[in-house]
Amino acid sequence: MKTLIAGNWKMHGQQAWTVKAAGFDRLLEATDREHIEVLICPPYPFIREMFVASAARHIKIGAQNCHAIEKGAHTGEVSAEMLADCGAEYVIVGHSERRAAGERDSDVSAKASAAFRAGLTPIICVGETLEQREAGNANNVVEAQIIGSVPDSAENFVVAYEPVWAIGTGKVAEISDIKSMHAHIRGLVGDNVRILYGGSVKPGNAAAILGTENVNGALIGGASLNMADLSAIARSAPKN
Ligand code: 13P
Asked: In the chain, where are the structural domains located?
């Protein structure tokens, strides 16, 4: 199982950034990368250009969301099929920033099914708020999100555990908490699913996080905007 180093650019970037992504793609040529898979999920308008520019194909391209339906009168939406047509291989679904805007487990499950239909791999995000953690409910919340968001009979998917309070705050979960939550998720999804950790992953903490049992990669926000940081995180992945 390759460690997945996934960058989520969120609503950052501009067309010119595709050049730095392409530079990173070429840089990986000289990097020991048998044990890693590197992915960048830029905003929709940059997906095709990033795919074309990353000609060495050492980085894969993904999206941050998709619509559940293939086509129709849904102004402003983008289908999983369109993303696949533009070169995307992955799509993030159910990110906490979208759940906070009203996305429910059933929506996330429908989007994950759309990803399968289009031949994309969904990265299904789950994670508790600080309030839920402090009330001792973190495991139950994440378990309910997984049960509700992973479609029945789903096989080729990735789970990203992102504690909401660790996203963009510089606060990283304790390694012991990551280990315990990832073991819990492992029990729910089985041995063949990669489980990523996300929340303030940086070059300085990546080795410890990626070296934790049942952590099969990272979903990186802020640090993925800087190719040197993303590259440092990729290099800190353990060679199993
Ligand atoms: P940060 O790495 O900026 O905390 O963001 C994490 C995240 O939300 C990735 O999806």
From this structure: 3-235
| Helix locations, 47-189, DSSP H | 47-53, 80-85, 96-99, 105-118, 130-134, 138-149, 175-189
Distance from Cα 214 to the centre of ligand 1, integer Å:
19
The answer, yes or no, to whether residue 171 has pLDDT greater than 90, is no
Q: Where are the beta strands (DSSP E) in the chain?
A: 3-8, 36-41, 59-63, 90-93, 121-126, 158-161, 194-198, 217-220
3-235: what fold?
Answer: TIM Barrel (3.20.20)
Query: Does the C-beta of 199 come closer than 6 Å to ligand 1?
Result: yes
Closest ligand 1 atom, residue 202 Cα: 2
Ligand 1 atom showing the smallest separation from residue 201 Cα: 2
Give the pLDDT band of residue 30 (cuts 50, 70, 90).
Answer: confident
**Would you please indicate which residues are annotated as catalytic (active-site) residues?**
95, 162
Burial (Cβ within 10 Å: 0-12, 13-18, ≥19) of residue 23: middle
